[in-house]
Amino acid sequence: MRVLLGISGGIAAYKSAELVRLLTRQGCDVRVVMTEAATQFISPLTFQALSAHPVHTQLLDANQENAMGHINLARWADLFLIAPATANCLAKFSYGLADDLLSTLYLAVECPVFIAPAMNQAMWHKPTTQENINRLIRHGMTIIGPDAGSQACGDIGPGRMTEPEAIVQKLCIQNNPGILQGKKILITAGPTREKLDPIRYITNRSSGKMGYALAEQAQQLGAQVTLISGPVVLAAPEHVNTVLVESAEEMYTAVMQHIADQDIMIAAAAVADYTPVNVKAEKIKTQNDQTELQLHKTKDIVASVASLTNKPFTVGFAAETENLKQYAQDKLTRKNLDMIAANWVGQKEGGFDSAVNALQVYWQNGQKIFPMTNKSQLANQLLALIAEKLHA
């Protein structure tokens, strides 16, 4: 694969050297383009040595036969990766500006484009930056990251460039869509509704976005996907067998009807733990200042699957407001799961009804943290990890 790597002017440019090394190790032919600002952070000679090719910095290259190096590079590339991508770089791409080689290449390439943003957390949170990101996503660009953590300026928050290993993993998944080829995956998604009467019900804030993202990405990675979904306002993913249910009991029944011969089960749904003992046939009238509800426990779907004799590789989810690691690892052991993906809810970012999330994933004698990112990318990362553990 021919990878065109664009480097803009940020301190994270030093990470791009490791990117070149990892990509070449994967057998990629890498050509590097740097902005003038990028050369102030790291020498082009470094990338020339690592890639074994000259580094391109000028828009009009007199050494090219037609003096149009940008067109030649654009035609050459199978994939265009910009890492790091500064806020200024994103703004140029978003509005179609072309005043240097890197921004001109973005307009000229016809191959897939991937961007790894890197900037101060305040710049990342700025509405203008988020508008630019959303516009680029609508234009078909894939955004990788950014990660959250301590930054060169001393701030802490999202804006760190995703680590090179994670970027390369993302590119490999995107360009090797068969890592789940032939596998059957059952995914649950969304909330359940537990009826009180013909009008009222008990539910939760789950939007189903994570489960639907998992279903869509799994299908793109070659899997045969069955999605069992509670009530959501999302369109069913294409080429996915989608089964719509409402209550926890209906979801349990649907899962058990479809679980045979599944290779993987991912329980991303937020299933009600309790359901009313009595469902009234008529609307409950408002009379007293206080009332009582009698509830009984619902069937534990993921534990039931994990207890089967020939169980699939079973992945649970845990949404917590405290003691995330402790509760997740307890659930992993107690329910005999192969893996559990845990996330915070009630935080400023991520959780229910959000387009982004972060996960802490645990398995027997192992763990991995996926920083805050959009749920499609997060789904891709989680599925890659599941495929790795399943094949192992």
Structure characterization notes:
With 392 residues, this protein is of the alpha/beta class. It folds into 2 domains: 2-174, Flavin prenyltransferase-like (Rossmann fold); 184-280 and 287-391, CoaB-like (Rossmann fold). It has helices at 15-25, 44-51, 69-76, 87-95, 101-108, 121-125, 127-138, 164-174, 209-220, 248-258, 301-306, 324-334, 375-391, and strands spanning 2-7, 29-34, 79-85, 113-117, 142-143, 147-150, 156-160, 184-189, 194-195, 201-202, 224-229, 241-244, 264-267, 274-276, 295-297, 313-320, 339-344, 356-363, 366-374. Helix 1 (15-25) links the parallel strand 1 (2-7) and strand 2. The longest helix is centred in the C-terminal third of the chain and has 17 residues, at 375-391. The radius of gyration is 24 Å and the shape is elongated.
Annotation field: number of helices: 13
Q: What's the shape?
A: elongated
Count of domain modules: 2
Q: How much β-strand is present in the residues? A: 15-25%
Spell out the CATH superfamily of the largest domain.
CoaB-like
What does the largest sheet look like?
Answer: 8 strands, mixed
Number of strands: 19
Task: Name the CATH architecture of the largest domain.
Answer: 3-Layer(aba) Sandwich
Low-confidence stretches: none
**Averaged pLDDT:** 89
State the name of the first-level CATH class of the largest domain: Alpha Beta
Class per helix and strand makeup? alpha/beta
| Order of neighbouring strands in the sheet with most strands | 12-11-8-13-16-17-18-19
